[in-house]
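Friendly challenge for the regulars: who can give me the structure tokens for this chain first? No prize, just bragging rights.
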Amino acid sequence: MYRKIEDFKQDWAHAAGGTKMVLGALTDDTLNQAIVEGHSTLGWLGWHLATAPMFFVGQVAGLQLTSVGNPQEVPTEAAKIVAAYEQIAAEITEKADTLTDEALLEEVPFIQGNAPRGAVLRMFIDHQTHHRGQMTVLLRQAGLTVPPVMGPTQEMQR
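First reply, four minutes later:
Bragging rights claimed.
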């Protein structure tokens, strides 16, 4: 849980940078890559990372964000997913400055009851990290290079 807005902003900068690297590896022809048929695709996961902030950061945490698109309408072009994520990530960075340390401790309505706003923001970053990890597996399965989000990847060691 975040108790200092500067801690969130620092973590967000790192997390958003890693996600931009993963999204930047996408290609139009690999957006339908799934671990098996019927599971989340690279395109769906990327679009989910671009649209989920409207729930976590907008609706729950209360920051006024501009929607980047309909979560149910996954683009067929990787560049559109990347651009949408970059837009929402920049807006979160900008709007985070409107929060105070005290605001992070305030209880807000969440999925199964109330939670401190700082806990919601931590769950938001954890949620993004979870799906970004899923994407790295699918990138490799699709024959794409996995970027060094958390350190060197197997592709870099060859």
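The first helix runs from residue 5 to 24. The radius of gyration is 16 Å. Your move, everyone else.
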